[in-house]
Model the fold of this input.
Amino acid sequence: MPIVYEEVLRKDISAKHFAPVYLIFGDDSYLKNYYKDTLAKKSYDGDPFFNLQKFECDCDLQEVFDAVNQFPMMAERKCVTLTDFDFEHAAKSDFDRLLELISCANDTCVLVICFDTVDFDAKRGAKEKKILAAVEKVGGTIAEVNHRSITALVKMLSDGARKRGCNFGEIAARYLIEISGNDLCTLQNELNKLCAFVGSGDISKEIVEQIAVKSVDASVYEYVKQILCGNVSAALTMLDDMFFMRVEPMIILSTAASSYVDIYRAYTANIKGVSRADIAADFKYPKNKFFLIDRAAQNLKSFNSAKLRLSLSALADADKALKSFGAEPRAVLEQLTVKLVYIIAKGESVD
Done:
């Protein structure tokens, strides 16, 4: 059975046509838990005290096994959920019990297995493949639930604002996603805050800038943007803001360095005549990160090979300095900021 996505889960819930087992994994925590909880709420009949049982990572699998095999109380179907069972570090007997649990799927119980904080890579390990094979054998549904596309998120924000009596245009909605990230829980919180602030009327890009909380990645990308524009004052102000928010210096450096690595990849690909799609495939960029390649390509105008080499060297030196004993992180990053701006402006390094 192929891996399905969010749309199939929506259809099953809407049609009340449920598989005996659902295996849910992916990179969007909010959506994984939403579909786990919705399946649990919609798939059973009768009294939830008897026909809905939920188990977490530290449970006894024998209890889960017993729950799945007990008949529903005065109803046709019950539901059992199992969240974040750590199959990777479980004893062999417990892992085998998990496979047996899946193989015992029946028409009177919907078993929902969800991996939220426990990593589940469908293409990686032998244990994952055994779990997938067990679910497939009983006719279960394997669902990978990932972050929604930018277009889908914009629609969600616009529709959500409209229900609250506000108008959220595409430009402003896209800007919110850009600065706050694509996590649904975060976006819902920011949408509620923006609508409460506006009351009714338009949510503009300026209001988003004023009210919304920037993600760490967005803050660092803005910091790098100011460096590439040669605006050392604005870059240092952004750096000061991040220290005020207590962002870890190594996170600032590593995120900034990743932007330069993206630029280097785009620069090399441009010389070799390699497409952006090939860059994404070769370096395994997630779909929701393809914009990083486009951003890197746009920034190529600021660089030649010498500037790239000197910039990467300055970043490497800053990394060593931050990891050395006694270095003052703020001073290291402030000096790095000035060096990177100078390299772009002059094409040479400065001590």
